[in-house]
Amino acid sequence: MLPRWCDKYSIHNKDIDEQHKKLFELAANAEMISDKPIHKGQVKFLLADFFNYMKEHFADEEKYMAKIGYPDLPNHQKIHKSIIQSMIDLIQNIKSTNDLKEKLNIIASKWLLEHILQEDMKIEKWHQEHLKKQSSIEIEEPLQNTYNYICSCKNKIHKVSYEIHKKIQTSNVHYKCKICQEYIKLK
């Protein structure tokens, strides 16, 4: 029996989580028809729906990983390509309706859910650790050669060293105010 969606599978991105929920539903539908008599056309329709949604999801997920600066993005993209190629190979070698149902179940359980439960959870783990590192760096004290940054706090100026300013400007690194928890911006 396939697992059902729950919050422990969340990567704390509303759009990606909604897509994961939909993929869990599609996987449940695939499992449900695996031992029932069903017309080959219906299975093909479900498979095509699954395939198209996975491609859309993978593209969105890769954009999200790029946005947060996920360091293992190239490897994750290779995994996505491998899943899609394996899916194409399976679809091309279908012999019967039962074979089609079995392959759909393999796609749903092995590739998709294992991918979400293992690989996508690595994204969330890295992102949470990265956020902790960002918020733990001290930037409040005045320094020589500093840059002025602001946040949502009224009349609050954050004095940021050249090194941290350079990181903010040249990479996908952000720092939060310890008081309002908003990202600081160059004044």
Automatic annotation (TrEMBL):
PROSITE patterns: HEMERYTHRINS (PS00550). SUPFAM superfamilies: Hemerythrin-like. CDD domains: Hemerythrin (cd12107). The keyword Transport applies. Pfam families: Hemerythrin. InterPro entries: Haemerythrin_Fe_BS, Hemerythrin, Hemerythrin-like, Hemerythrin-like_sf, Hemerythrin_metal-bd. Residues 15-123 form the Hemerythrin-like domain. Keywords: Iron, Metal-binding, Oxygen transport, Transport. Belongs to the hemerythrin family. NCBIfam families: bact_hemeryth (NF033749), hemeryth_dom (TIGR02481). This is Bacteriohemerythrin. It comes from Campylobacter insulaenigrae.
